[in-house]
Structures are given as C-alpha cells and as structure tokens.
Amino acid sequence: MAQKPKSRTNRAIFEEVGTGERQVAAATGSIDKGGQGARGAVRLWLMLIFALVAAMILVGGLTRLTDSGLSITEWAPVSGALPPMSEADWQAEFERYQQIPQFTELNSDMDLAGFKSIYWWEWGHRQLGRVIGLVWAIGFFGFLATRTMPRGWSGRLLGLGALGGVQGAIGWWMVHSGLQEGMLSVASYRLAIHLGLAFVIFGFITWYVMRLSRREADLLQARRSGQAKLFSMSTGLMHFAFLQILLGALVAGIDAGRDFPSWPLMAGQIIPPDPFYVPDGAGGSLPAWRAFFENAGLVQFIHRTSGYLLFIFGVIVWLRGRRSPMARTRFAFNAVFSALLLQIVIGIVTVLYAAPLPLGILHQGMAVLLWVLILRARFLARYPHVQSVRD
Asked: Can you tell me which residues bind heme (predicted)?
C-alpha cells in the first residue's frame, strides 16, 4: 500500500535555509545601553552650578566697580566663611584695611559704616565661591558613591572642580597684588586672568549641559550632519569674544572706561593723546610696554577697536549661519548677532556716561549672555537638530 506523501508548508521567500529557529532582530541603541548613568540628574546639578557661576561673575563685577575687592586683606578659605560677629571684630578688620595703600591714599576719610558696605561685597563674592565649591563636591562625590556617574564623565567633572580650586588661588593672587606698596587696586592683568578663567569654567559648564541634554547616540547621529566650516568659524568667534572679555577686564582694572566719555572719537581724535605715556610718580615715565596695561586712553582704544573688529567678524559668521539648512542653527546665529549688536550699543552708552555702576554691570552681564549664545550656536553647528526635508 502506497504511503500518503507528507504535507509540505510553503517556505517564506526570505526564510533562512537550513535552520528551523526563528531569527531574532538585532538589538538597537547599543551606544546608549549601559554606562549612561543619571544624565538628567547630572545635567540639573550642572545647571545649578551654571547659575551660581553666572552670579559669581556678576558679583565679581560689582565688587570691582565698587572698589570693594581689597576690603578683606587675608585669605582664610575656612575661617573666613564667617564675617565679623562683634563690634570688636569689625574694628579689627577695619584696622587691617587701614594699613593698605588703598585706604591711606584713596579712602582715608572712610568710617566704619563705609568700610562695612565694601566689606559685604567682597565677603559675598568669596562666600559664593565657597558655595560653588561645596555644591560641586557634594554632587561629584555623590554621583561617584551611588555609581550613577555617566561613563566617561568623571574626568571632565573632576576637571571642573580642579579649575575651581585654581580659580580660588588666582583670586587671592589677584587681591595680594593690590595690597602692595603703591597699589590702589589689584593689578589689571591679574584681574584679566581671574575673569578669563571664570569664563573658561563657565564655558565648559555650558558645553557639558548642552551635551547632556541629548543622548550619546543622538549626538553621534547629529555630528554626521554637522557643518564643519560653520563650526570652525563659530570657534573663531568664540576665541575672539574671549579676547574681548580679557581686554574689557584690563579696562575695568584701571577704570579706563570712565575716561574719554565721547564716541566715536577720543578727546576729539581717533587715537587718544599720549597713548604710550605712563607717569612714574617722579616726573618721568615708565617703559612704553606698560602703557598697554596702565594707560587709560590706550587700553580703552584697544578695547574699542577690538570691539569693532569683533562685530565685523560676527556679521560674517552670522551671514554664514543664516545659510544653514537647520532651522534651530539659523535661529541660534540670529540670536548671537542680536546680542552682539545690543552689546555694542550698551558699550557705547557706557562710554558716553563714563561707566556708571548700573551700565557697567549691564555691559558685563550682556557679555555673559553673549558668551552663552556663541557657545550654543557653535554647539548646534557641530550637533545640529536633524529635521525632515519638509521642515
């Protein structure tokens, strides 16, 4: 008796031959799988430090503009956290201030009440620095202890803490220069280094916050669509803006912004009079190279000229950014141009009114905002938000 043939099932057209096992699709998202840690929590922690450092820069500016930076003549990182607690303590602190040249030659008519007003600015500035250090330490070691630090981020965040420590040391190095004989304020070049490092730290924090706002896989994908030329140009704009910030610190260091309250000319001419003359106090003059740090006319002229050149280069970068196919990138460069234009106007008005306190701090605050906007535009040039062709 013939056997009935076995029934056969139709084989799928894409079925693997030689195996009866079902194929499992490859897992996706391997870049983001594991090691990501608490990215959101780390980002929030950095945003808190971001706000504190921004406040630190502004309070530092107010401390300089009110000539308060030399009111505390000692560096006591731990014991200095407490202000004078009694009238005797206040008197002792005031007597230490009375020993430095700023008091004997500039503020000899100051009473205890006047000293307290400048003391609180400097104490607040130093206290804010302690708070930033504490917030960093709690967050950093907390993420390490709980093993929630994102992979590859411990070195970066440890570097932030190290830079903060260096900044504290440079702050005292700056103050110490103003306590020396013949000095009525801190050395302007030390002030520029102090402010410059503050903006470097602020820049790293800003960049890290933006990186942590997106997954590593998304960043890798976005970088393939990055605009190398625009990124390079925005990097140049960032460096140029940083140079202008340093030059602004030199202006603030010798109160050069309060001289030559006219624009566009200075004392009726393009180049201010006697740009390389620095008196030595004995009827002679100091070497010409010191004029780049101590001649108010030359220092302000260089800051003005650099500002014009920065604006011209900013326009070139903006025109390039407007051609980006990415809407968010275009918007970011539009924001940079708007802030740059506004900063130029604020700078001119500040000069015309001889740098009063409100305008001086507004000018510095606008520099902080412009710095952040440049970094944001640079970030989007490298890691654009990919959009559809329809968008």
From this structure: 303, 363
Digit-coded pLDDT (tens) for 242-269: 999 999 999 999 999 999 999 999 999 9
- Whether 14 is covered by a domain: the verdict is no
Instruction: State the average pLDDT over residues 110-114.
Output: 93
Q: State yes or no: cis peptide before 264, omega within 30 of 0.
A: yes
Residue 303 among known ligand-binding residues: yes
Of all helices (H) and strands (E), which one includes residue 217? helix 216-223
Contacts with 20 (C-beta within 8 Å, 6 or more apart), sequence order: none
Domain hosting residue 163, numbered range:
35-213
Q: How is residue 269 annotated by DSSP?
A: B
Ramachandran area for residue 269 (φ above 0: left; ψ -120 to 50: alpha; else beta) = beta
Report the pLDDT value the prediction gives residue 285, as an integer from 0 to 100.
84
Q: Which residues contact 215 (CB under 8 A, 6 or more apart)?
A: 31, 32, 36, 39
Structural tokens at position 126: 């130093």
SS3 call for 266: strand
176 is in an annotated binding site: no
Nearest residue to 187 (alpha-carbon basis) of 247, 97, 253, 257: 253
Query: Which among 157, 181, 213 is the end of a domain?
Result: 213
